[in-house]
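Data card: per-record layout.
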Amino acid sequence: MKKILVFSLLLVSTMLYKAFSQGLATLNDPIIAASASNNIRYPIGAIRNSVYGRIYASFDIDSAGYVRNINVIYPIMNKKSMGILGFEHEIKTGLSKTPRLRNRNQGKYILPIAFVYNNIYYNSNDYPTNKLPKEYYSREYQILNEVQITARSDQHRSIRQYSNIPPPSRQIVDY
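The structure for this 175-residue chain is written out next.
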């Protein structure tokens, strides 16, 4: 009986240690992931210019469970390029629609968002390869699992100025 009790206490303490060492919320929070997947759209400007890439957004969840202070932290682009492509606007708009979360999710997070582009005219499915540099890692922020947003080159064909054929795909770090 004592062996069973000692074994069960050891098992429970190991599980509790793992749970608390991960922070207040899990890195794979299904509510945040589902909300981001449903509310963030592939920007029309990026589709028009055949641009894809991985964007990292930081945000806070306050004690009431609301998403606040949404910022694109990487890659850093000039305002004109970011405005033309529309990534920052779509991310901020999409994450601001996140429903109120439980207070156990309170904290600071980084969400990687992979904008994957399927260029059917060049028969390429472009997946971003850029990664978050080490200097962005911090004990203050928890990095969530990546969310994937996809687009096809034949979406919004009417917005191309001179031709319905898109340009070759370019990753955002090359833009």
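Known properties of this structure: The radius of gyration is 20 Å. The chain has one domain: 25-174.

See the next section for split statistics.
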